[in-house]
Amino acid sequence: AMDVSKNQLNPGSSKSPARRLAAALVVIAASSAVYVGVASRDDRHEATAETTPAVGTVAVLVESVDAKHEDLATDVLPVTRLSGNAPEPLQFIRALAKRAFDGDAEAQYLVAREFDRCGATLSLVRKLGEPEPAFWSATETWPQGLREWTFREFQRCSPLLKNDPFVDLPPRDGGYTARYWFERARESAHPVAVVDHEFFRLRGIRSDEGLTPIAERAEARDKIVTALMSGDPDASLTLGQHLLAAAEDDLRLAGVAWMLVGCHAGGDCGENSAIVSVAMCVGSGECPAGMNVESYIGAQLGPAAFAKAYAMYEELERNLRGGNVVALKAQLDY
Questions:
Q1: What digits encode the pLDDT tens for the residues 238-287?
Q2: Among 103, 107, 179, 310, which residue has the least CB neighbours within 10 Å?
Q3: Three-class SS state of 221
Q4: Residue 240: C-alpha distances to residues 129, 244, 284, 292, 330 (Å)
Q5: Taking Cα atoms as reference points, which of 119, 146, 104, 105 lies closest to residue 38?
Q6: Beta partners for 210?
Q7: How far apart are CA 18 and CA 25, in angstroms?
Q8: Which among 215, 257, 275, 262 is positioned nearest to 235, based on CA atoms?
Q9: For residues 278 and 286, is the Cβ–Cβ distance under 8 A?
């Protein structure tokens, strides 16, 4: 189990403001999939055979049960972006599954995001026996506030332990994983999924095939700019999250600037954001109640660094508003 200490939640003052912010957000992300594409690159908490098994089986972690309960909502919901997490992930995913399967990009993204996020929490109890005792055992070294917040997340997601949200879809070898839905969303040109995938090609991060060639990085930059100019504020927010994990302070400040672009355009930046887990910080008692993404960023950076990031945000906003593709590509020359 991950050992999250109070010191990790409050990065030391010896780091620069941008580094402190990045460290804090990374720790906040540690027990939930803040980055929407984590499952598209990493199997740490992937819902594979254990949660959505291969053909002919029911998705379970603990015991086999009939997933077709009459009390589960199956009506298709309007495909609208949630602010924060779904109160009832099982019903939410199941209601959108058919539309996602049929090719609706927004439904694919929302299903992927919710399934991925719950997969991170439920991974704490995978193969550990009875879920609730296993949860408390797996988190025994965590600060109490963080344990209690994560347990609430566990309770929110726990119906997925015994019920297959994709039971009404055709059987698929390997099951319907978060990775599968993220990839479908990317193929459908969903702006957030595109940014999430192309960022790592842009940065030339090593993959199984080696470093990304220069030509592919240029292509990735083009696709990111197109996604950013789509008007989807969560695309900017997601780009900012990725930049916060960079080694260079100027890229971290750029990350803050892009997050501000997303927040000011109406992105998922409330206390219960499904992209930036401010709620984990608040729920664990490390942050004051009512804090949102922008106030969290401001508190971590301090006035001088925040002013610098804000100036970068204003330039980005002008270029987006003016459709200045050349300038945007230059600003993404990482």
A1: 999 899 888 888 899 999 999 999 999 999 998 888 888 888 888 778 88
A2: 103
A3: helix
A4: 38, 6, 24, 15, 16
A5: 119
A6: 207
A7: 11
A8: 262
A9: no
CA distance 199 to 209: 16
Q: Which of 35, 15, 31, 213 is nearest to 112 (CA)?
A: 35
Whether residue 253 contacts residue 305, with contact meaning beta carbons closer than 8 Å, is answered with: yes
Question: How long a stretch of residues is the chain?
Answer: 334
Q: What is the rounded CA–CA span in Å between residue 123 and residue 31?
A: 9
Dist CA 297 CA 267 (whole Å): 15
User: What are the structure tokens assigned to 70, written together?
Assistant: 């009459």
| 174 contacts: CB under 8 Å, gap ≥ 6 | 48, 49, 54, 180
Question: pLDDT for 35-46, tens place per residue?
Answer: 333 333 333 344
